[in-house]
Specification:
Number of strands: 7
Structural class: alpha/beta
Order of helices and strands: HHHHEEHEHEHEHHEE
Number of helices: 9
Helix content: 25-40%
Length: 317
């Protein structure tokens, strides 16, 4: 009966915004679409004419310089920044084409949903937060009010053994510059697209706050841009640790959190991990929060993935 009620709620409420037109996330797929959008030119380059004998040779661009054909200072500066970021990052471990496509598909779905919420607010429609209010339950959910607060999305950074990569444990990267990590396909482009729409990306982790600066540097190194420790990068470990629900509600006090991204149920509500483990699957699918999956709650690959060889040992933080 709870599942039926949940599905009826989904159909009746339209889950935050109905009838809005979704647009595709500007994901770099093979470099083609992003190249057209960033550099504003989808034409094939004109062939370089053969130099005449009397002509003074032009200074040669460095071999392999991908920015040599860019014509505007802004485009060239952006490409140089991306080139430097890529050179600084460690190479990613081999992944299947299917897993890469699945990651792109997942982040595309997230972007399409968030863009509908942006369009809804611009049209004067009410938009609902997806952070459960204090005292709410999975069978009787209530949400922190959005009011006119700016939009934000919460991303969990910790790979869990039960989540997107069973071989990766969250202590496998520590953010001190020595880690072998990369961004999953679609994540960097997705975060960039969110920021262009005025949506704040906030990353959270169960690591200790002492690693804030190193973690922020790691995220910048692999292409995610700048994060402010304690504001847009929240490490909640320590003695005692801050609960996930407390972090979510603290963020929701200043932002309208229209989406949460994680790879384990506890990334969305501590209630999932507080009850009987045998009832955990039913808690995700047989309660009144079931309609949120894919419509505010997104079980996606973590934005940052360890590329180190699997190990049974857990390095110190």
């Amino acid at each position: 009966m709870s599942r039926l009620r949940a599905l009826l709620t989904l159909g009746a409420a339209g889950l935050l915004c109905g009838g809005c037109v979704a647009a595709a996330i500007p994901i770099v797929a093979g470099g083609s679409m992003a190249g057209k959008q960033i550099f504003g030119d989808d034409k094939k380059p004109e062939p370089t004419p053969e130099p005449v004998a009397a002509a003074t040779p032009a200074p040669a661009e460095p071999v392999g310089d991908p920015t040599a054909t860019l014509t505007t200072p802004e485009a060239r500066a952006l490409a140089l920044r991306l080139q430097a970021s890529a050179a600084a990052s460690r190479p990613a471990a081999p992944a299947s084409a299917e897993s890469a496509a699945a990651s792109l598909q997942a982040y595309q779905s997230l972007w399409a949903y968030v863009e509908r919420q942006v369009a809804a607010r611009k049209a004067g429609e009410a938009v609902r937060s997806v952070v459960l209010a204090e005292g709410a339950t999975l069978d009787a959910p209530r949400y922190v009010p959005c009011d006119a607060k700016p939009f934000a999305i919460l991303f969990d950074l910790d790979e869990s053994a039960a989540g997107s990569d069973p071989d990766a444990r969250f202590r496998r990267w520590v953010g001190d510059g020595s880690d072998e990590v990369s961004a999953v396909p679609g994540a960097v482009e997705g975060v960039d697209a969110l920021r262009r729409e005025g949506v704040q990306a906030i990353f959270t982790s169960a690591r200790r706050p002492s690693g804030n600066n190193a973690a922020a540097a790691m995220l910048a190194k692999i292409g995610f841009g700048e994060f402010v420790p304690g504001k847009t990068l929240i490490l909640r470990g320590g003695e005692p640790p801050i609960s996930g629900d407390q972090v979510r509600r603290t963020v929701a006090a200043s932002y309208c959190v229209v989406a949460i991204v994680g790879d384990a149920l506890g990334d969305f509500s501590d209630t999932f991990d507080a009850g009987d483990a045998a009832r955990r699957p039913a808690a995700a699918t047989e309660t009144m929060v079931a309609p949120l999956w894919g419509a505010g709650w997104f079980l996606l690959p973590n934005p940052v993935r360890s590329t180190a060889a699997p190990t049974t040992e857990l390095p110190k933080e």
